[in-house]
Design a protein that fits this description.
By secondary structure, the protein is mostly loops. The protein has one helix and two strands.
């Protein structure tokens, strides 16, 4: 759940509702409470970046240290997306 970013050396949380199911070493109830709390932090506006697209914009983020949630706020305009994944390390 805590990993070290391979480029910066900083510790970060690798937690999300899709992939994090339990904290090893905690009983189920305690683990569920802590994971729920940590996952809710992504919903706090002070911890979010809201990107307002303009023509010609490019966005790039590091999935090792960022949670991404796409909002369909571009209608009726078309969305063109290209995804690039950089081969990297595995969290341990």
């Amino acid at each position: 759940m805590v990993r070290v970013h391979p480029e910066t050396g900083r510790r970060l949380l690798f937690v999300n509702t899709s992939f994090t199911t339990r904290i090893t070493g905690m009983d189920r109830e305690e683990s569920d409470r802590l994971l729920s709390y940590l996952c809710r932090q992504a919903q706090v506006p002070e911890y979010q970046v809201r990107f307002r697209w303009q023509p010609g914009d490019v966005a790039f983020w590091d999935n090792r240290a960022t949670q991404h949630y796409a909002v369909n706020d571009y209608a009726p305009h078309p969305r063109v997306a290209e995804r690039v994944a950089i081969e990297g390390d595995r969290p341990f």
